[in-house]
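Contributing: when you submit paired examples, paste them exactly as shown. First protein:
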Amino acid sequence: MLEIHSNSQGDTRIAGQAVLDAIEKTEDDKIKPRILTSQLIKNVEDHHAQLINRTRHGMMLLRGDTLYVLEVEPAGYAYYAANEAEKAAHINIIEVLGFGKFGRVYIGGEEAEVLECKRIVEKRLAELTGREDYS
């Protein structure tokens, strides 16, 4: 995985194109994301929140929150989903795991916000193009 950061989106896009040119690929060669799991757990109890929070690397899940769990393939799309989620609603990113074959995103917050986030994230992932090769 490679991350490119810049204050200028144009610079980031140019750098991304340079990487694609170097490996002789185009953006159309990417694998289309596939959602494997999309689950909502409403009104999380305090004991469940405690268990989830002990291994998290992001924000905390609180009692009464709604938890959204998204599993996507290829794994790197987990980061894309988390980014889209943050733009879509006032939610907390509990954890993002984007290594290996499958990526997972754990999102928490108020039910209405999490439902909106789920709707937008799944829409954005469905809009992405690419080849369907999940070997």
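Second protein:
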Amino acid sequence: VYSEIVPFRVPVAEIARRAPMALILSGGPDSVYEAGAPIVERALFELRVPMLGICYGMMLMSHLLGGKVTRGERREYGPASLDLVRDSFLGGAGQVHRVWMSHGDRIEAVPPGFEVVGTSGNAPCAAAWDRSRKLLGVQFHPEVAHTDHGMEYLRRFLYDVAGARGDW
């Protein structure tokens, strides 16, 4: 699947001009409340493009769309168990997957239209989605080798949710 990495500062109009079939908001060490933290234009979510927020990307999505993001009781870094509580692109309800967490904030309430699909011992919302708008978020890092099924999660997002064909 053809992809480009662009900084968060790229204007929404430029992103719209490129007509992406999907967007991924990546992770990072910042808090959405820190001065100087990377913030995208809220209009990004009005493009109606499937979007996956990873770690900070999920926090930012939740923050900008009306969810409640708070400072966690403790910073989490390392392995965690992801408990799937609903069927989703991550798998079936009742499954438990090993994932890699690295964050200081947590989502206390998801934005309107979202539903929690996964929890962990330290995160009441470790994964959520708004199925109708194809907005997905995971608090863990699917891109690292420490996350079981991580590449499969990314494939499902690209192929099943965004409709990529993998023919580039």
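If you have annotations for the second protein, write them as plain sentences, like these:
Helices lie at 12-18, 56-64, 150-161.
The longest helix spans residues 150-161.
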